[in-house]
Structures are given as C-alpha cells and as structure tokens.
Design a protein that fits this description.
The protein has 565 residues and is α+β, with helices and mostly antiparallel strands. It has 17 helices and 20 strands. Among the domains are: 70-224, Dipeptide-binding Protein, Domain 1 (Dipeptide-binding Protein, domain 1); 312-534, Dipeptide-binding Protein, domain 3 (Roll), CATH 3.10.105.
C-alpha cells in the first residue's frame, strides 16, 4: 500500500565540475524515466541467467525473496506497501488492475457510477477459499469495519467519499448510517457524500476489499495475523507463513478466474532486507528476482546480467513531528533544516543509483494535471540552499522556545543499508551546518511503523506511494483528519484546499487546489522532499509476464508464468 520500505543505493564518479555532473546525471535520469513512461524496461547487458530452484517449470513454481514480512494482513487496517503486495495477490476487490494497468472487473462483473453514487453487480462465481460465495454483504461489513472508530484504521479517510463516512469515523453517527447497501447478495449500492471523480479507482484499493463477518468474528481479534486467520478470494492463498522467515502462496482453486492464473506456486523461502544476501541467493539460483543497491549493482554489471529499471511512483521525505511540545513544531526550526537540505546532493552523491530523482515536491513527476503533467503546469517553488538564512531561523527558533541550546533531536529510520547511509548523511549535514545533535533511531520496518503511529520521533525518514492514479492520493496526505499524517500536521488552509479538490469534478479547479497544497507544503516546511524512487533489479529470464506498476500491487505476479525458453 502506501507506507513504503526504502531500498536502493550507490556509485558514480565525479567530473571536474559538480554542476556539470548534476546536469549530466539529471539528463540521464530523465532519459531513463522517459523509457519507463514508454514501457521500456532496459536490458543493459548481455545474458546471464540463474539456474537452480528459482524457477520450476513442471510445478509452475517461482521462488522469491521479500525484504520484510507484512506487519499484518487485515485489509481494514493495513497501511504499508508490503501488506499491499501480499493482499493484491490473495484478495480481490470490486475492480482490479490487469496486466496492462487498466481497471477491469473483479468481484463486480459490471458497474455504473454517476454524481450521486454507484451500483456494482457482483458475479455469481466469486467465492471465498472455503467455498462460500462473496456477497455484497461482505463489502458492507468491511467498509463499516474500516470506519468504525474502534478499529482505528489509518486508512478510514479513503472511505470518506461514501455518504456519512467521515461522520461515522468521528463517532457522530452509527456505522449503520454508512451510505452502502446490499440490495441483495449480488447487488451493492453506494451513495456518495459528494461527487467523486475517481471512485472506480478507489474500489480497486485494498481498504475497499471485502471481509466476511462470520469468519472475521471467529478469529477473535486475530484477523489477518496469520495464514489461518485470513479468508481468501483472490488468485492465490497463503499456505505457509513462518513469521520473519518465509511465506508460500498457492493458486486458489476457487478463484473465479483461475484459468487465467499461470503460476501454481509463489514461494518466498527468504525474508531479508540484506541486498548482498539477496544477490547471493539469486547467484545460487535460489530466487528469481533480486533488487540491487550500489554494491550489488556493481557486481551484477561485472557478471553482465540483464538489468531492469523501473520508477515505482513513490516519494520519500523527512517528515517532522508537529505535535505540541516537539521542537519540530516550531516553524523557524523546520525552516532552518529546509534551508540546508539538498536533495540533489543526497541523490547524486550519497545514494548514487540510476533512476532516483531529487525530491522537489510532495507530488511526483508522473501525475497528470489538466492537459499534461501536473508539475509542468504547476511548477514547484525553486528550492535555494542558504546556510546564513538557516542559522538566522535557528536563532529565532531558540528565542521562541526560550532555549539557549537545543536538545538532541531524534531521527527515526529503518535498519536497511540505504536508510543507514541517508540517516548518517542528514546527521552530518545538520551537525555541520547548524550545530545540531541528531540521534539516529534505527528500527525494523514493523517497529518503525509503530513508532510513527505513536509519534515517537522528532523527524522520521518516510515515504508515500500512490493508492490510485490521481493527485489526491498525495494531496490529502497532510490533511488534519488523515491518520497517515504521522506528524499530525494541521493547517485549516491546507484542509480547505483538500476539500476543494475532493468536492469538485472540474479538472482545472482540482489542479488549482493541488497547486495551492504544493505551495503550502513547501512554505510551511511540512516535510523535506528527498527523492522519487527508482528501482534496479535482475530477473531470471525464465520468469515472464511480471507486471511492474505505479498503482496497485507491485510487483504483480498474477499474470506471470515460467518457461524453459
């Protein structure tokens, strides 16, 4: 889903001029991303396939590694990309994305959407993995569960377009007041709170997946915590989940479109964030795909393996804790850090992996505006580095806080190699430029999410991936009511523009609102954009049909197949 795990790193050489180097690298990155946008995944070297257990053609099995296990698989509460990847293979909503990234029928065989609401007609052969039919009642229960304040779903906001959704989540109405109705087992009717320009995209998202009430209640609060605590209606089922060690997905014989699924088994015998270990597994023929960082990229180039590159649509940034009592609540303090932050230096001198772009906005380059790309029509404010001005703002912050010396600030980060390198870079910059003491708090993925949710940080290295292909998926991230707003930033002006974007069907009105949101995010130093992520990886050529996408489960193996050729 949208809370993303960091990856990728390392190595370029300098030219005589730093400015020329940055320009050259920016041009290279732009060219690579143009190739991505045209659907060309680069094969940059000669052959070099793995052999071994990674691909087993007779059993139609592929073996993979995951960087982290999902924190949990309750679709009403899941927030992260790892859970989204798993759920996208074992569950299905009303609609889904196909191999060409178009929305197609899922549980719903047809639908009708207008300004007032939507009606979905469910297919007769949609079934749960225990053989019982998937019904409209399963969607009603799931959506109510998401919005129930007792669930504390951080994704409740994504259901606010449904009538009374926000009031229910605020505890002002009972969950039965939600504007969704099972007319009968096969007909789901939805009433909107306001006109929604993108509702078809919403229902493909995991928070809109169905949940069967009797099974949910039988798990006694453990729904999605283990393989046995989940009921499946998607292409695959989880048949093994050894926590922090391995997972196994097997084809779901009761999936309505099972004939289109060409893999019988997706085996994940390894869960590790270690890039070197992953590359060695790939070398030994134990896994079919390996994501590279700088060190492993150099190794792959030496071995002349075919490389594939992809920009996954995610934006990474430093997020401040805006809660009362935190130093980072102070605008001048945030502005001081903003004025010494250089995303180009981070990308080109620290990370050094092709495909990454310097962060300049909360809104990534690929989002569409009125007639073209959003950022071409609404250029971000040009960022300037100014150490003298930064020190001035820092002194203002001290005065406002009544401090002569600032205490150490805590930077929460992941425990992978790239996160370590980035955290040390920021620690060094803030120390040298501003004299600040930065304590790095390294945590595994699951624990980092928990600390983000509880607000146990001053600054966190965070990332956000798109839930669907509309700027609102980034634009409402720092709205007051959005629980994925981990730093609890609250600004009535930003909230007002978010409402404009949500309530209008006019493209120009909506994009004007996103332009204002982009301005506020920069002017108020809500976050410090770092980079837009590019991924470089190797793939066993016997594994074909893997879909990489900006929106939806990524990578997607539901159309994949294995071959001897």
């Amino acid at each position: 889903m949208s809370e993303v795990v960091t990856d990728t790193e390392d190595t370029f050489t300098r030219t005589a001029s730093r400015q020329l180097l940055l320009l050259a690298l920016a041009a290279l990155a732009a060219f690579v991303l143009l190739m991505f946008s045209l659907g060309w995944l680069s094969e940059l070297t000669a052959s070099g396939a793995t052999t071994g257990d990674a691909v087993d053609v007779p059993s139609r099995t592929v073996s993979l590694a995951m960087s982290s296990e999902p924190p949990q698989l309750d679709s009403t509460r899941a927030t992260d990309q790892v859970s989204g990847f798993v759920l996208g293979h074992v569950m299905e909503g009303l609609l889904r994305y196909d191999a060409t990234n178009n929305l197609v029928p899922g549980v719903a065989e047809r639908w009708q959407i207008d300004a007032e609401g939507a009606t979905f007609w469910l297919r007769d052969d949609a079934a749960w993995s225990d053989g019982q039919p998937v019904t409209a009642h399963d969607f009603v229960f799931a959506w109510r569960q998401v919005l129930d304040p007792a669930t504390a779903s951080e994704y409740a906001f994504i259901l606010f377009p449904v009538k009374n959704g926000e009031a229910i989540n605020a505890g002002e109405l009972p969950i039965t007041a939600l504007g969704v109705e099972a007319v009968d087992d096969r007909t789901l009717r939805v009433t909107f709170e306001r006109p929604v320009a993108y509702f078809d995209k919403l229902v493909a998202f995991a928070t809109y997946y169905p949940v069967r009430q009797d099974f949910f209640e039988s798990t006694k609060g453990r729904y999605g915590a283990d393989a046995k605590d989940l009921l499946y209606n998607g292409p695959f089922m989880i048949t093994r989940w050894v926590h922090n060690a391995s997972m196994r997905f097997e084809k779901n014989p009761r999936y309505w479109n099972q004939d289109a699924i060409r893999l019988d088994v997706i085996d994940v015998p390894y869960i590790t964030p270690d890039y070197s270990a992953t590359l060695n597994l790939y070398k030994d023929g134990k896994i079919a795909v390996a994501t590279l960082n700088s060190d492993t990229l150099a190794n792959a180039l030496e071995l002349r393996w075919p490389l594939h590159r992809f920009n996954d649509g995610s934006v990474f940034f430093l997020e401040f804790n805006h809660r009362p009592g935190r130093i980072t609540e102070n605008y001048d303090f945030r502005r001081a850090l903003q004025l010494v932050s250089d995303s180009s230096e981070l990308v080109y001198k620290v990370m050094k992996l092709p495909g990454n772009l310097p962060g300049v906005s909360l809104f990534p380059y690929w989002l569409q505006g009125v007639n073209g790309f959003f950022r071409a029509e609404y250029p971000p404010i040009e960022h300037q580095i100014d150490s003298a001005a930064a020190k001035h703002h820092l002194e203002r912050a001290k005065a406002a806080l009544g401090l002569t010396e600032l205490p150490a600030i805590v930077l929460l980060t992941g425990d992978d190699p790239l996160s370590n390198k980035q955290a040390e870079y920021f620690q060094n910059v803030f120390s040298k430029q501003l004299g600040l003491t930065v304590k790095i708090d390294k945590q595994i993925f699951k624990q980092r999410l928990a600390k983000m949710t509880s607000g146990d940080f001053d600054i966190v290295m965070a990332g956000w991936g798109p839930d669907f292909a509309d700027p609102i998926t980034f634009g409402d991230l720092f709205a007051t009511w959005n629980l994925n707003n981990r730093g609890r930033y609250s600004n009535p002006e930003l909230d007002r523009w978010v409402r404009v974007a949500q309530n209008s069907l006019d493209p120009k009105t909506r994009m004007d609102a996103f332009g204002e949101i982009q301005r506020i995010i920069y002017d108020d130093a809500v976050i410090l954009p770092n980079y837009e992520r590019g991924v470089v990886y190797v793939r066993d050529p016997r594994l074909q049909g893997v879909v990489r996408r900006v929106v939806g489960a990524d990578p997607d193996y539901t159309a994949a197949y294995v071959t001897d050729g």
